[in-house]
Amino acid sequence: MKKAVILFLLVLTTNGYSQFAKNMFSKDPIINLENWQKQRVYFGYYLGFNSFDFKFDYKTPVKNDIQVKKTTGFNVGVVGDLRLQEYINLRFEPGLYYSKRDLYFPEFDNTNDAVREVNSTYIHFPLLLKFSALRTGNIRPYLVGGLSTTLNLSSNAKSLDDNFQQKFRVKQWTSAYELGLGIDIFTEYFIFSPSVRGMFGISDELIRDNPANGSSPWTDNIDSMKSRAILINFTFH
């Protein structure tokens, strides 16, 4: 299944690149879907990949930062687009994001204490403004930015166990701002839009260990822990 999805995306990307080359070097390109983006509202869907990280701020300086081992996750979702004017659109892109991160605490010698897994299944709700450039042939680049809120279905927020029982807990709801760029490629039948976006957390999502268990070497010195990520999406309208 993974190989089939990757092959499918490669074919679409190759098709998009062919369209790009044709429009860059052809004097009189055939204009595809000329009136599509004049619609007031239109919809689509996206598939993609992500790489999530954590940014740590500490209460007191540390010799060795907490290390984050990142993995590549996947994204899938839908797009609702509202045209505000010719070059500005309001977009809502709810989706499901899966990510996995391993945290390494360098002060521990015992592997069971030094490593914590953070598996995250996010329902992501970004509200974005899309600023499009002038269309050239069948190519139209754009910038996108906005705010998002995220529900983490794997947060362990309600668990009574904490790091003393090897449970690393994070909050269910977090918020972030997002900035990115992309390109609309108008094919004969649909619009293919590859994009890359950075997501930067603005709320602390760490749940500290229970005071009843005593001083916590895992969470006591962390002033804030915020997610950040690179999101790569392939959108189809």
TrEMBL record:
Domain Outer membrane protein beta-barrel: 39-205
Species per Swiss-Prot/TrEMBL record: Flavobacterium reichenbachii
Family matches, as InterPro entries: Beta-barrel_OMP_2, OMP/PagP_B-barrel
Protein's name according to its UniProt entry: PorT protein
Superkingdom classification of source: Bacteria
Annotated Pfam families: OMP_b-brl_2 (PF13568)
